[in-house]
TrEMBL record:
Stretches the record annotates as Domain I: 1-64
HAMAP family the UniProt entry points to: DNA_HJ_migration_RuvA
Protein name: Holliday junction branch migration complex subunit RuvA
Record-stated family: Belongs to the RuvA family.
Designated gene of the protein: ruvA
UniProt keyword terms in alphabetical order: ATP-binding, Cytoplasm, DNA damage, DNA recombination, DNA repair, DNA-binding, Helicase, Hydrolase, Nucleotide-binding
Superkingdom of the organism of origin: Bacteria
Residue span(s) of domain Holliday junction DNA helicase RuvA C-terminal: 174-220
Pfam families with a match to the protein in the record: HHH_5 (PF14520), RuvA_C (PF07499), RuvA_N (PF01330)
Comment text on domains: Has three domains with a flexible linker between the domains II and III and assumes an 'L' shape. Domain III is highly mobile and contacts RuvB.
Cellular compartments annotated: Cytoplasm
Amino acid sequence: MIGKISGRIEYRTTDHVLIDVRGVGYLVYCSERTLAALPGAGQVAALYTDLLVREDVLQLFGFQTLVEKEWHRLLTSVQGVGAKASLAILGTLGPDGVSRAIALGDWNAVKAAKGVGPKIAQRVVLDLKDKAPSVMAMGGTMAQAQGESAADFDVIESAAAPAKPAASPPNASAQAEALSALANLGYAPGDAAGAVAQAAGEQEGADTPTLIRAALKLLAPKG
């Protein structure tokens, strides 16, 4: 299994990039958002990858963060959602947006992705709603893992600068900690995830205490 790639960008098109790793070129398919974040040809780049193995094809898919990779894995587990649709969803919403849309049951946001119809969007939200909290809870752990593994990406010539994947959203750890705190207070995972996702969307970059207070207000009985 090829889990991550680091090397020089040879070229890129509208849906993939060719990365040279010590003379071996890896063709990696990415979302529009990920492609737009990569440097130009001749520069060093690093991506987490997922390898699709079928009888007639081997395809690598690349992601800026481990959270994005995890959402791709979950999205493609939904019936009717292939790798192309998954990349379209991630390219439109980003991993943080996918977490928020699924936690809030906002299938219209998912439907905004190119090639994703209403039935598929609703299925994505219904099938993954119970899994959204677990991915959100991974945010802090994954952000730490990415920081600790940065040195692993320096696998090309020593003259090249070390390449690092893009950092996780600044409040990924805060969302995970807020979710954990609400769970400890007895709130159902789905309700807690929805409240944290909404609070994070309304207060971008908020720290853990701020997210907890905002989420508690959203969870408070109305009337």
